[in-house]
Amino acid sequence: MRMLLIVVGVIAAALILLGLLLEAARWLVLIGAIALIGLFVLSVVRTRRVLR
User: Fold this and answer.
1) Which structural domain, as residue segments, surrounds residue 42?
2) How many domains does the chain have?
3) C-alpha to C-alpha distance for 33 and 27, rounded to whole angstroms
4) 37: Cβ–Cβ under 8 A, 6 or more apart, which residues?
5) Closest CA to 36 of 22, 48, 7
6) How far apart are the C-alpha atoms of 23 and 17, rounded to whole Å?
7) 3-state DSSP helix/strand/coil percent for the chain, to nearest 5?
């Protein structure tokens, strides 16, 4: 599960950087931002589950 979180985070960061570099592909920034938000929520939920 930890590897999945890392992979999603790297892909999301790459999409955001690629979208910023291209400037025409605003949807890449949007997809990357959504992926990062999802990654953050998933990691918080998983952390709380482990702490219980």
Assistant:
1) 2-51
2) 1
3) 10
4) none
5) 7
6) 10
7) 90, 0, 10
Q: State how far the Cα of 33 lies from the Cα of 40, in Å rounded to an integer.
A: 11
Three-state DSSP class for residue 28: helix
- Given a contact cutoff of 8 angstroms between Cβ atoms, the answer to whether 15 and 39 are in contact is no
Q: Which residues contact 20 (CB under 8 A, 6 or more apart)?
A: 29
Dist. CA 15–CA 51, nearest whole Å: 32
Q: Provide the percentage of residues in the chain whose pLDDT is more than 70.
A: 94
Which residues of the chain are under the pLDDT cut of 70?
1, 24-25
pLDDT for position 40: 86
